[in-house]
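ugh ok fine here u go
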Amino acid sequence: MPYKNPEDKKANRQRYKESGRADELTKLWRANNPDRVAAYKARSWKNIYNDPEKGEEYRYKMRLYKLTRRITALVHYGGKCVCCGETRVEFLTFDHMNNDGNKDRKKNGITKVTLSIWRMTRTDIRVLCYNGNCSHGFYGYCPHERERSEQ
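structure:
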C-alpha cells in the first residue's frame, strides 16, 4: 500500500521494526538461503580486503580514493595553510575554527565529521599545517601568526 504522507510511511516502518518481525523474517530467509548468504559474505569488502590476490589492488584503490577526496576537500577549503602558506598535502590538516573539534566528533561521530568535510558542506573548517594545528590545540595560538605580528 503506497503512502501519500511520508510521516505515515516512517511511522509504519518504525512499528514494524519494534515488533521484532523483521528480525524473524531475516533469520528465516538466512536459514532458507544459505548459498545466497555465503555468496553475499564472499563479496563483502572484509573478505576482499584480506584476500592476498585481490586485497592489494583493493587497498591501493581505497588509498587512491581517500587521497583524491582529501585533496579535493583541501582545494575547496583553500589548498594552503592559513598561517604559513604551506601547500604540501602531506603537511596539511583540517582545523575547526571554533576549537570544538572534540565536541563535534563526540556529538556526530568521526564518520559524519569526515564525510561532512569531504562533501564540503562545512563553513567552520579551515586548512592549517600540522604544526599550526597542534600549536592551536595545545597553546591556543599558531607560532606562524606570532612571527608575522612581531615583524
